[in-house]
């Protein structure tokens, strides 16, 4: 049997389905078949993320993303619930002079 070539939409579906909620490659291949009517092999699904990574590397995506993030004032957005003085609070990070600062707001019940 010869090699099979699928288009970019099927590769994108394999990456999306395989990256959501830790879906195993076997289940991803089953979902592709159920949703799209295409019998993609588990090998195709397993290599989908690798093909995407190769394309992103070729375009310089990592360096562009790092440069964009370095230009931001703050790189945080955590709203973890914390307890302070027996009350629940939401810890919100806000940019302050290029750094993250924590500010506690009383959590809504």
Question: What features would you describe in this structure?
Answer:
The chain contains four helices and three strands. It is 48% helix and 20% strand. Mean pLDDT is 76; it is low at 101-109. The protein has a three-stranded antiparallel sheet, with no helix packed on it. The chain has helices spanning 8-19, 25-36, 42-59, 61-70; strands at residues 81-84, 87-96, 99-106. The relative contact order is 0.10. It has 109 residues and is an alpha+beta fold.
Cα Rg: 21 Å
Share in β-strands: 15-25%
Q: What is the N-to-C succession of helices and strands?
A: HHHHEEE
- The helix-and-strand class reads alpha+beta
The N- to C-terminal Cα distance equals 62 Å
- Biggest sheet, open or closed, and with what strands and sense? 3 strands, antiparallel
Question: Going across the major beta sheet, what is the strand order?
Answer: 1-2-3
User: Can you give the helix content as a percent range?
Assistant: 40-55%
Number of helices: 4
Mean pLDDT score, rounded?
A: 76
Instruction: List low-confidence stretches.
Output: 101-109
* Number of extended strands: 3
Please write out the topology.
Blueprint: H1 8-19, H2 25-36, H3 42-59, H4 61-70, E1 81-84, E2 87-96, E3 99-106
Question: What's a quick, concise take on this entry?
Answer:
Helix content is 48%, strand content 20%.
Which descriptors would you attach to this protein?
flat, three-stranded antiparallel β-sheet, 109 residues
């Amino acid at each position: 049997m010869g090699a099979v070539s699928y288009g970019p939409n099927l590769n994108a579906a394999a990456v999306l389905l395989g990256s959501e909620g830790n879906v195993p490659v076997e289940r991803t291949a089953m979902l592709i078949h159920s949703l799209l009517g295409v019998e993609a092999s588990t090998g195709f699904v397993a290599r989908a993320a690798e093909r995407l990574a190769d394309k992103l590397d070729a375009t310089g995506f990592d360096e562009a993303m790092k440069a964009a993030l370095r230009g931001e004032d703050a790189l945080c957005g955590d709203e973890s619930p914390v307890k302070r003085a027996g009350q629940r609070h939401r810890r919100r990070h806000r940019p302050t002079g290029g750094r993250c600062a924590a500010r506690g707001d009383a959590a809504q019940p």
